[in-house]
Design brief:
The protein is 19% helix and 56% strand. The chain is of the alpha+beta class and 206 residues long. The radius of gyration is 19 Å and the shape is elongated.
Length: 206
Amino acid sequence: MNKSIVNKTCIGDNFARIQACVWAKMLFLFIALWIFSAPGNSQHVAIKSNLLYDAAAIPSLGIETKIAKSTTLDISGTYDPITFSGSRKLKNWMVQPELRRWGCIPFSGPFVGVNAIAGGFNFEKMPFAELKQKRAQGTFYGGGLSFGYHKILSPHWGFESSVSVGAVHISYSRYRCGSCGYKEKSFNQNYVGPTRISFSLVYIIK
């Protein structure tokens, strides 16, 4: 079979998987929005997508709701179940709940937050130092602080930029290859530094 046809087929399959994942997450979040914004509830609710993750083909979505006069609860996450051609994997999931305090009113201007983070990953044959022909699988958890700004674009649309810094504990095992499953070594590492950079498109439901 022509190599270019095979490559095009792989690209098409991966794009279809990304689309399916995004639509599934959107459906889940819209259901959650109706739960949060039940009849008679005057609080604001927003859905968002981190454009940096999306550009890297890692689907991301989040939901944020007002819980007090100047306080919101944000729950954002990613989920990437895709296996690329040649058994290459960048599978990962992450959830990051965050409590935010706004300078004036929610969804407008600067905010500070405190957050937790947890997730897992399964990387194989990726262009990293030790994973070009190997696989790493593990989990991570931690927490930190965030600083950000929300710019209002219209009554319902906004753009949010933020950075989170904190400490994360990472536990993972390195395998000789994906199919044989031979574990070479286990690792436990602690990381201190940026845990999220976000440039998000936000839609606010009032």
